[in-house]
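Section handout 9: paired folding examples.
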Amino acid sequence: MTQTSTGSSAEARQPVRLVLTPRAARPPRVPLLTWIHQRPEFRAGVRDAGGGRPGGRPGFSDAVIIAVVAQALLPGLFNLLQSWVDQQRTEVSVRVQAGESEVEIQVNGRTDATKLIDQATRALRQAVESGEAGGEAGQAAE
């Protein structure tokens, strides 16, 4: 069966794991986690991974954020991320993981949120295709 570029509703609900690592020379005016939590749909699935430990790597903030969200929420999350990066004049490393597939994206003031979504979608599509080829190939048709 051929699917449209928007995917099926089942695909849209598939969980995607993201690791967000802000790079900051100085503390941000608004922490990224606080910025993301402005939207209620991200409060449950987006959390601080490090517990706010001081003394992180130079050039990186202490906040590493883990997000597990449905694929359908990625455009909203990437738009929030891009607006935070633009306001803070910094950048964020984003690792997007879906199944066995992973892609790392650098978000900075020159990044287009649409391109972020395209890169993440490609990684997700690869994960779906590899899952269909591997795990579902031996199943009987209904």
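Moving on to protein 2 of 2.
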Amino acid sequence: MSSAAEQEAVQEGRAPDLGLPAQPAPVLNGSPRVAPAVPVWPGAPTPLGARFRTGPDGVSGTNFALWAGGAESVELCLFDFDGDSGGTDQAGGADGADGFGPTPSPGSGTEIRVPLTELTHEIWHGFVPGVRPGQRYGFRVHGRWDPWTGARWNPAKLLLDPYARAVDGDFTLPPEVYGHVRDWPQQQVADTVRDDRDSAPYVPKGVVVHDDAPDDEWTDDRRPKTPWADSVIYELHVRGFTKLHPDIPEELRGTYAGLAHPAAIEHLVKLGVTAVELLPVHQFAHEDHLLRRGMKNYWGYNSIGYFAPHAGYAASGTTGQQVGEFKSMVRALHAAGIEVILDVVYNHTAEAGELGPTLSLRGIDNRGYYRLQSDARRYTDYTGCGNTLHVVQPHVLRLITDSLRYWVTEMGVDGFRFDLAAALARSMHDVDMLSPFLAVIAQDPVLRRVKLIAEPWDVGSGGYQVGAFPPLWTEWNDRYRNAVRDFWRGALPDVRDLGYRLSGSSDLYAWGGRRPYASVNFVTAHDGFTLRDLVSYERKHNEANGEGNRDGTDDNRAWNCGTEGETEDARVRGLRRRQLRNLLTTLLLSTGVPMLVAGDELGRTQGGNNNAYCQDNEISWIDWTLLDDPDWRALFDLTARLIALRHAHPVLRRRAFFSGRAHSADGLRDLAWFTARGAEMTERDWYAPAATLGMYLSGRDIPGRDARGVPVTDDSFLAVLHAGDRPASFVLPGAPWAERYEVVVDTSREEQGETPGVVHRAGAVITVPARAVMLLKVAS
């Protein structure tokens, strides 16, 4: 410390004289505010948040309720619009120049503070007559400033309602939005020095939303309710998918309305996917380190509002209009038979660690919402993002489940993919599959009926939990990704692991009544290489992120086909396209739930960037002109044909695991594996190095019956996967497996619009081209 006075100031939790204004009571927008005579009635402690309704004597108004355990008092802050450019430029949509919505001006409109004096079970509440939808608001919460015990109340900071249904404005993170003096010269104690400057001019406001607007009724909506086994998931970014689409009106590109546009939906329907998995659409904020570099968070894994659709993706407005626009998008997708799954981030918030901003939960009750270390100044971080929500706490669990139910019942979504789900499954410290979060989900009459996908790991000790989540849950299966990538780059020591992954990963999921569709199979995801980059680069090229190429994984399991990056070499380009066909075909023929990443079917590239989380530009956006290139159009045609084949044949989307046993006297089994010699695999074969594997799927032995009770039967197929760099001979198995085989897919062909149609006799020796998949149907 530079002086005894400054040291004393730190110990007292106040700012020393650094040129900051001394503010015993916060000064708002240049002058102290004395609230006019705004009536506030007792209201009700439930539901939480701001709910417009009819109050006593038929008077309309809004009930406000905020859980703030340990707080000494709470003020509701109401804002008008004078002097504020927040909201939407109706002529130009929600995009600012940076594409992330409106930037708040220094003026935030007149603020009126209304004390909430009613307290019920730690919930501060009140009904304010005359407050209607469109009203912007926030909270100021009073209490002790004692970071050493985890208490970080600071009434100078305007806080976003955790239950806000809409948010107007953007987070820019100037020093005023930090509860502590961000730029305190001794950074090791900076988080202990309270900053008394008002943050209201610099932070977004919650918006009161009409819950029952006539155009938001769901009477005309029909959920697709696609069974898990029949699902094909398509992971996409609302903005990136629509930003460059030439047939979407420019003012709708990058928005919910753009995704609802017929041109966007037409592509999804032609492709044949059954569900879109949207990268985060909860209101999110941008990290300070990105803003300092002139960048912003593109992916959105930095949530701050769990009930509000991200305002930057709205074309119609940001003072409540985004809610209706999101619902209209869901309706349009449902009408096309496509489900909507949200990627949700309940494991941490945008407030980061102790040096992060005070935007919402930290200022409401830091100790109640976050996991703290024994040194309560510090946060337990199982997420790698600075903090972890304390899901064991009842009010935190309530926040999450209320949010989930809201998105299902009022916003119409069909399921969720939980980012770093292992962090949610931790009890006090360890991951616990009987944890409060998982137990509540399992018994909830709404949530247990929707699609639940876990990213089954976090960054904490014991966080890797692939295969461990209970029934009702499916999981991102990274062991599938790794095995398929390694096989096609020639890095698997044998084919044991590949056999499990192709047939539903029974070694991971065949317990507790789980089914093959517990495995979400994927080769690529939003984080990592695109499919085209996976066969074009072996090393990451993340220089554009401004982090010295240190960010992003180095474990890419990629093969560049002999040349790093883009090339004009026709041989290398052809080989790369074949590898893309191999990877897509393997994925869509595997048992489980396939997940594609938007643009992989078109050959989208990120130039080798495997961590494009901060690239809101052409690096991340889909280039729709790829469809004009015959080579990439052929890749789209193959992908659509494989998905159609999957939909047409139940043997490719089984609801139960294979038994591998004969079910009839002729010895035919539901699943059989073959060497290139046409002989069934022995134990020794599984442990031997191999580049060729044959997988026989019997359509005669599918367990289960259709809706009318009729046993399900189908064609039988033989898939031959050959990762060798030279053609291989393969003997087609004879009786009882087949008499003849018809070639349905051959990935060595550039043109993929039609079925090859070549027929071979059983026992014949066929030539499988180098690095190719052949799918053969058993012919009668």
